[in-house]
Write a structure and sequence with these properties.
Layout (H helix, E strand, L loop, with lengths): L1 H33 L2 E2 L8 E2 L3 H7 L2 H32 L6 H9 L6 H11 L6 H8 L15 H26 L3 H9 L4 H12 L1 H15 L3 H7 L11 H11 L3 H26 L7
Antiparallel strand pairs: 1-2
Helix pairs in contact: 3-7, 3-10, 4-7, 5-11, 10-13, 12-13
Length: 291
């Protein structure tokens, strides 16, 4: 019986497995090997140097600077983005007028190209012709910050753009989870005199915990990347103050032609992302609530 079932399944799975091995697994394995070599990506073949690239990473100030910037995003983006998404989702499921309009409006940045968003917000933050600068001057701030040109504000400026883009996606995700909760739980809580705050903490949040866990893992993985928006808005500047691991590996590999070293940074980024995913899955795991 089982042999007949597998004979039917394997021919259908084989093309997908072949594509996955060719375009996912093989590049991963090849990257692992290249990270152990010294290679300029030109005619000369890679020279195997073992773990030398990874040893150099430990003493690379630029690597640790980029890792620190990623750590900033890993802390800030989940708290602010998911916090706002939960707030908007809860409010818009309470019968607010024009709730469908707000859902579409908040979700709209998600369908835009990240590059287009980066260019758009670069003009918003522009120190002379930017909309934000003009607004701050209008309300009496004579010398607004140079948002993308100041090392003290550039990470916050990029975080604001990312939050603006991502919050609508997670809001819609949470709304879908909230609307699947049976109304009988809310009706019983309101009959007992529970406030909306208690209803959210005691009913809504536990019921959407699995969705919240998934959203947290997604945004954490995004925080370890941040390539497109950073490369579009600042290219890692000013003075590497906004550089992240993904832009650093791009610079080392494609600008400085250090493909072995750049790939070592990519491998480190891969294991960082994997570690974060595993730790979060472990810490946030709990029994699913059935209803």
């Amino acid at each position: 019986m089982y042999r007949g079932k597998y004979r039917l399944i394997i021919p259908f799975l084989a093309p997908s497995i072949l594509l996955y091995v060719t375009f996912v697994l093989y590049p991963y394995v090849q990257s692992m090997y290249i990270s152990l070599t010294q290679w300029r990506g030109l005619a000369n073949p890679p020279v195997f140097i073992g773990l030398e690239n990874f040893a150099n990473l430990l003493n690379d100030r630029n690597f640790w600077n980029a890792l620190g910037n990623n750590a900033f995003y890993i802390v800030v983006l989940p708290i602010v983005t998911l916090g706002l998404a939960l707030f908007f989702a809860f409010v818009l499921t309470q019968g607010v007028p024009l709730s469908k309009f707000y859902r579409i409006t908040y979700f709209f940045p998600q369908v835009m190209s990240v590059v287009a968003i980066g260019v758009l917000w670069s003009f918003v933050y522009h120190p002379t012709i930017g909309i934000l600068t003009s607004f701050l001057e209008t309300i009496g701030i004579d010398r607004p910050p140079v948002w993308l040109g100041n090392p003290d504000t550039v990470l916050s400026a990029i975080s604001g753009v990312t939050i603006w883009q991502e919050v609508g996606f997670f809001m819609v995700l949470f709304i879908a989870a909230m609307e699947s909760i049976p109304m009988t739980y809310y009706e019983a809580a309101m009959l007992d005199g529970a406030s909306r705050w208690h209803i959210f903490w005691k009913i809504t949040l536990p019921m959407i915990w699995d969705t919240l866990q998934t959203g947290l893992i997604f945004i954490m993985i995004g925080a370890t990347n941040m390539f497109a928006i950073t490369q579009t808005m600042t290219q890692g500047g000013p003075s590497r103050s906004s550089e992240v691991l993904s832009t650093y590996l791009y610079t080392e590999a494609f600008i400085n032609s250090k493909f072995g070293y750049g790939t070592a940074v990519a491998v480190a980024l891969f294991f960082l992302t994997l570690l974060i995913s595993l730790v979060l899955s472990r810490l946030l795991s709990r029994e699913s609530l059935e209803y």
